[in-house]
Design a protein that fits this description.
Helix content is 38%, strand content 21%. By secondary structure, the chain is an alpha+beta fold. A hairpin with a 2-residue loop joins β12 and β13. α5 packs parallel to α6, α8 packs parallel to α9 and α10 packs across α12. The longest helix has 21 residues.
């Protein structure tokens, strides 16, 4: 792991800020460096099988890939395979043969009752969501998951549920599962409104994925489930008694709770009750996947699944819960950083909000979804009035009777608004704030995450109340270009 020029630049900026009488963030930087160091030591102690709490900087796609492949070591009782093929869309045949991938995750030691799921609340859910909700409500044990990209199987012509079930049946037949298709959970992501190429998946791609099954790493799944994602996302954690928690996720656009256009799969070899796992997963999603936004559009296909093979005893539920939260929060940050055309990631820390955590998250998403704020961040323009304006708009609409007199704002650790007035002190401050944004900038076409930095925004209402953190992305030309040409 290495520290890049960002640490040097940030220290220089902090020194200038302290001399100018602004809020000094040296202690925060020291804490970040301490967390990075401790995380790296823990990772090295178990042979590098875990991702760091804060991922290191990477100098190439190959370095990032090697890191995830090693950290993706599968928990006991899991194996997975991926395969690719082609299909011709019934809805757009002129586009010709299109690529599609399938991923099969297999519980090798038998079916499990210990699985949990959280699905989209969109009123036009995908057909796999309907199947998944039925599996969850019926209490069906699971022994496999099957995921395809490219086509989301949402409100298609024909019978989308039957198409999803036919793919599940192919998985059950290929793996000789005693529970049949009911023991397989399907997921689909991709173009909305197209028919699922069930025949191609069931007869060609799924059998090839089963033939490719291996029990080494989850990296192949992280890569195969991508759509417009620029790079795969994987997080892992090993508990003190050896229990593994490994998660993969995809998602780059239509990212807005509940949850986001995303699929997430968390595998563990822990032995844990189904009801406890469901409670933990729901809470973890609220803290992570429900606290991010790229473009404010809620997907029709969102699915997060946690599944346990039960091959190892669980010595501490608290330790497991902490690991689950860490994996989910890491993946959610990765999703925003990998958003379509994302050039910056905003991290908004809201303190003492005069309402519930739910409403505090709503306010945070209102701020990061403001087109004016997004564009300012994209251009490294410290137009701080847009931040205050977005907050004031939300409070005026939804909390008109709550006082904002004690609210303060920080950008990059520097106080920019306090006691109803902006605190801006000339060109030096303007340059400092712009440099903070520039230092967090990402390449819009990068195929690996070069760094883990954020544009840091603090909103403190004073007094006492709810504390939450919300992540969001800026708005770039690349985002428009990607979504103007998505289906091809």
């Amino acid at each position: 792991m290495k520290f890049t020029r960002s640490i040097v630049l940030t220290l220089a900026v902090v020194s200038s800020s302290c001399q100018a009488g602004a809020f000094c963030a040296t202690s925060h930087i020291n804490n970040v460096m301490k967390v990075q160091s401790e995380s790296t030591k823990l990772r090295e102690s178990n042979g590098g099988l875990d991702t760091d709490l804060i991922l290191p900087s990477f100098s190439s796609k190959e370095e990032y890939t090697a890191y995830l492949q090693k950290a993706g070591s599968l928990p006991v009782g899991f194996a997975l395979g991926t395969a690719k093929g082609t299909f011709v869309s019934v809805e757009a045949p002129a586009m010709g043969p299109l690529p599609i991938k399938a991923t099969v995750i297999h519980l090798t030691e038998g079916p499990t009752d210990s699985w949990a799921a959280v699905f989209t609340s969109n009123r036009f859910p995908g057909c796999p969501i309907k199947v998944g909700k039925a599996r969850l409500a019926g209490g069906h044990p699971l022994q496999a998951l099957v995921i395809n990209n490219k086509v989301s199987n949402v409100c298609p012509g024909g019978d989308g549920v039957a198409a999803a079930e036919s793919v599940c049946a192919a998985v059950a037949e290929g793996l000789k599962l005693p529970g049949g298709a009911n023991s397989v959970l399907p997921s689909s992501t991709g173009v909305i409104g197209w028919r699922l190429p069930a025949k191609e998946l069931a007869e060609d791609i799924v059998p090839k994925a089963i033939q490719a099954i291996q029990s080494d790493s989850a990296y192949a799944a992280a890569e195969a489930i991508m759509t417009t994602d620029r790079y795969p996302k994987l997080r892992s954690k090993t508990l003190s008694n050896g229990v593994r928690v490994v998660g993969v996720a995809k998602g780059a656009g239509m990212i807005e709770p509940n949850m986001a256009t995303m699929l997430g799969y968390i595998m563990t070899d822990a032995t844990i009750e189904k009801s406890k796992l469901q409670t933990m997963l729901s809470e973890a999603c609220n803290r992570s996947f429900n606290s991010i936004s790229i473009d404010g559009d809620e997907s029709t296909s969102d699915t997060v699944v946690a599944i346990a093979s039960g091959q190892k005893p669980l010595s501490s539920e608290d330790e497991f819960k902490t690991a689950l939260f860490e994996v989910c929060e890491g993946l959610s940050a990765d999703l925003v950083r990998n958003g379509e055309g994302t050039g910056h990631v905003m991290r908004v820390k809201i303190s003492n909000f005069p309402g519930s955590e739910y409403d505090a998250r709503r306010m945070g998403r209102h701020l990061v979804n403001s087109p004016l704020v997004k564009c300012a961040i994209s251009g490294n323009d410290p137009n701080t009035g847009r931040i205050a304006g977005a907050i004031g708009s939300f409070m005026g609409k939804f909390f008109p009777d709550e006082s904002v007199d004690e609210m303060s704002l920080t950008l990059g650790g520097r106080t920019i608004f306090n006691n109803g007035k902006f605190v801006l002190e000339g060109q030096a401050v303007e340059e400092e704030l712009s440099n903070h944004m520039a230092d967090a900038q990402l390449g819009e076409h990068d195929d690996y995450p070069q760094h883990q930095r954020f544009v840091e925004i603090g909103v403190d209402f004073g007094g006492s109340g709810s504390d939450v953190t919300v992540l969001g992305s800026d708005l770039t030309k690349e985002y428009v270009e990607v979504n103007a040409d998505y289906r091809s």
